[in-house]
Each structure stands twice: as structure tokens, then as C-alpha cells.
Amino acid sequence: MTTPAIPAHHRTAHQATGWDRAAILALGAAACALSYDALQQMAVAIHVRGFLTYLFPLVIDGFIAYGVRALLVLRTAPFRARLYVWTLFGTATTASIWANALHALRLNQQVTSDGLYLGDATVGVLSTIAPLALAGAVHLHILITRETTTEAPEQPAGDSEAKRRGGRPPDASLEDLVEIGRAAAAEQGELSRAIVKKAARDQGLGMAGERLTEVMKILRAEAKAASETS
Known about the structure:
Largest sheet: none
Radius of gyration: 24 Å
Strand content: under 5%
Order of helices and strands: HHHHHHHH
Number of strands: 0
Number of helices: 8
């Protein structure tokens, strides 16, 4: 039986680079600029005054961008909280898509050039790419940032039996993570996902979102059982 080594930080096999993040940010910025231009003109059309027309796109597309973040952060929250966030996100996305499409259709109906002319349906569909690309770029950036910062424990060089395919060592077992979370919750006097995840990372252990959810279910069940018996 081999002696476990002290866990250490380990980079994932497919580590995102600065170029990956720059590409996503560039795509998001381009999508935001295209949608911003259409929404700013729509603000003028609905008689928003002066420089306030430049705030109108920020309100709509800002809700889309941060709505993606909120949906990921609150994915394990109570149903009512998730429904509220989904409602805000859906409303903002629908408003942005509708406004972009309406803007494109109205301009398309005024075209008198002899050059390339697209039908209203085609113009309307293509105009929705910008707001959808903005939401997609934000989502990709969050996922890449989360996945590439996950850390995994190192194993002894000679212990080839615990290792994953490709030589990457596995994360800690569910039992070990539950024990770490239990100790951290007792020390902090409260139980939360942030406390458990930080405790695991402090020991150099990786823990993906699904595994963290499993650990929290076990710990919350234990806490509930303890409160009922006390």
C-alpha cells in the first residue's frame, strides 16, 4: 500500500490561454457593439432624450450579460429565485432580439439601392445574431474561467493504479471531500458551498460543480438529521 502524497496544485490537461479569453472577449465586444448601435437608434425612435439614448442599450444588453452569470451562480438556488432570474434574463433577451429585428426591418423597408437586397425575414433573422452572440460569449467566458481554474491533487509518481487515463491524477474521493466540508463547516459555524469549496482548494483538491453539489447534499442531510435529533 503506497503512502499518499501531500496534495499539490495541478493544472488541467487542456488549459485555456490568454488568446482564448481574448478571442471570447473580442467576440462579445463585437456583438455588444452591433446590438448597441441598433438599440441606441431605437432609443432615439422612442423619443429618449439626449445622451440618455446611450444608456438604453446598456440596460437591455446589460441584463443579458449579467443574467447569464446570475443563472450559473444560482443554478442550485430555490426554484422561485431561479424563476425570477430566468424571467429577467428571458425578458431582456426577448426585448433585445425584438428591438434589433424591428430596427433592421424598418431600415430594410426604406432601402432604395440597386445593390444587394435581402428579404425582411432574412434581415430579421440575421439581426438577432448580435444579442444571442453576446449572451453566448459571456457564457463561454464564465465556463472557461471556471473549468481552467479547477485544481486536482498530485499522486505519487509510482502509484499508477489511481491515475486517470492520460496520466492525470483524479480529484479526491467523495468521502474525503465530505470530511473536509464537515470540518470546514464546524470551524466556520455555518455551511455553504463557498466554505466547502474553499476548504477543498486550500488543501489542493479539485472539486467540480456536480461533485460539490453531491457533497452539499450529504452535508445538508447530516445537518438536518442532527437538528431533528437535538
